[in-house]
Design goal:
237 residues; alpha/beta; eight-stranded mixed beta sheet; 8 strands
Length: 237
């Protein structure tokens, strides 16, 4: 055995879900993208009845063991619940409408081994609609200028950093921005990778492209100005 060979750093993927009918297709894609590397997957259902985790098929013998848990509804709450039972040295927070880039496992490990405490990917919104394509480009540029990625960019952190900053603030909205603010305050090195995740455009289609395009940056601005998330969430919905 080559004693100088580095042991792969295990990754835990934490997936908050609520009423996700396409969970099996999503997990198939995820497992395929890992290249069957060592990985832990935790699906956290915000429905106390477990409507999504009960849909997860048991027929896929090539899948890694998938932990299925429930927690109170809310991305911050669900992601903290997943992190509390995770064993990986790196925590990857993945939305169920986001597809990771090829070889993400190696990209994340390489980023951490180069001295970064965390990172995220660039963003692509999966749509041919001209307005959504514009939104995708603007969102990608915004995250590169501000160095604050949103949750649909697959944020990953060393577990020790996540615990040092006390995880996600358990707020109903803007939990991803609040997390990044704490990371910046900690001084931990963080990198946005050039490889892109592909996230579904269903949010824009369902809620209205123009309305969503205008609403999101306004809510973010109001959050930075100090408006509490409990008030902002009323406008988000």
């Amino acid at each position: 055995m080559d004693v100088n060979k580095k042991k792969p750093i295990p990754i835990t993927v934490i997936i908050p879900v609520l009423n996700e009918t396409g969970i099996n297709g999503f997990l198939c894609d995820l497992v395929e993208q890992t290249g069957h590397q060592e990985i832990e997957i935790i699906v956290v259902d915000g429905d106390p009845e477990g409507s999504t985790i009960n849909r997860i098929s048991r027929d896929h013998t090539t899948w890694p063991i998938i932990k299925k848990i429930t927690s109170p509804k809310g991305r911050a709450l669900q992601q903290n619940a997943g992190a509390a039972v995770a064993h990986g040295d790196i925590l990857l927070f993945l939305h169920a409408d986001t597809r990771l880039p090829p070889y993400f496992h190696g990209l994340i490990i390489d980023t951490v081994e180069k001295g970064f405490s965390g990172g995220a990917f660039d963003l692509h919104i999966d749509s041919s609609h001209p307005l959504i394509k514009l939104i995708s480009k603007i969102a990608s540029l915004r995250s590169r200028i501000t160095r604050i990625p949103y949750g649909d960019q697959a944020i990953f952190l060393k577990r020790e950093l996540f615990h040092d900053i006390h995880g996600f603030d358990e707020i109903p909205l803007m939990e991803d921005i609040a997390l990044m603010q704490k990371i910046k305050k900690s001084g931990a090195p963080f990198k946005i990778l050039p490889q892109k995740v592909s996230t579904s455009a269903r949010r824009w289609r369902d809620q209205g492209i123009l309305w969503t395009m205008v609403r999101n940056p306004i809510l973010a601005m109001l959050y930075y100005l100090g408006v509490p998330p409990r008030i902002l969430v009323k406008f988000y919905k």
